[in-house]
Amino acid sequence: MHARVTRRAVLLGLIGGGIGAASWVYVEPSLASPVPPDAPLPPPAPPGSGSVAPWFTEPLPPPPPDPAAVKAKYATAVPHEWGTAVTGARTRLASAGRRLALTFDACGGPGGGSAVDTAILDLLERERIAATLFLNSRWIEANPALAVQLAANPLFELGNHGTRHLPLSVTGRSAYGIAGTRSAAEVVDEVWANHQRLQQITGAAPRWFRPGTAHCDEVATAIVRDLGEEVVGFTVNGDAGATLPAAKVQGALTAAAPGSIVIMHMNRPKGDTAKGLAAALPALRRAGTEFVTLSGAAGLA
Q: What is the distance between the alpha carbons of residues 101 and 208, in angstroms, rounded to a whole number?
């Protein structure tokens, strides 16, 4: 069987070889119905149809968390752990290298809890040190313009430090004299209100959550995960709530093993955290320390 030579083939031959030296184009015969060259591509297969789309399509994003469903899911869950390093809490970097993750809590609340240690922020900016800043909702309310400014600074990543700065418990456990949340519903509320506030400020959902006092149970860490975040504890307590003198802050930082997550505080300007960090920097620089945000750390463990 011979293929029919079309007018389109002749024209293509004339264009390719010139009018005086036309070339013929052999068209392979086909039993299938011809498809016009400019025909539109077929639409992708509808979701759930079982058909495979003829080309690659981007996967749909996961649905947003449903706080009401999360409350119901864990309403009767019973915890068996309590502390700062329970199951589900991330306490170090997955890949150490020479990385160190500095994290600073801004706890908020009365008694100066919503103050700002500008010496810390100035030092981080001047020395170009990446850090993760855990902001509590009360601190954001007291410092709205600064929160927006910090969100826009590429050195910093903002984490969720809760709405009322409570230990995260489903049974009302306490830490340092601070009563925790008392149910799965209260855990969700503690996380979710500030989650939404931070998303409004940054334009993206926060990835990391640190409870007030850093204490939680393992049911709470599962709740946080279902809300789209991960609980972050710490490897090194760098300033004990901004109560340590500069020399001890310096010692804690210079002794920190690679891959550590260091917790410090940026809401107590009368503390010595900034001085201790400044004193530790020369030794950390000589050791080749790379300061990273939690999201820049290639995973947590």
A: 13
User: What is the model's pTM?
Assistant: 0.81
In degrees and rounded to multiples of 5, residue 25 shows phi and psi of: -115, 120
* Residue of 278, 296, 287, 299 lying closest to 123 (CA atoms): 278
DSSP class of 213? G
Any alpha helices (H) in the chain, and if so which ranges?
7-17, 67-73, 118-127, 137-142, 144-152, 184-202, 218-226, 246-254, 273-286
Q: How many CA atoms lie within 13 A of 255 on its CB side?
A: 11
CB 264 within 8 A of CB 238: yes
Q: Are 297 and 273 in contact (CB under 8 A)?
A: no
Span 43-100, pLDDT tens digits: 555 555 555 554 556 778 788 999 999 999 999 999 999 999 999 999 999 988 999 9
- Residue whose pair of structure tokens reads 């083939």 in the numeric block: 9
| Contact in structure between 165 and 107 (CB atoms under 8 Å) | yes
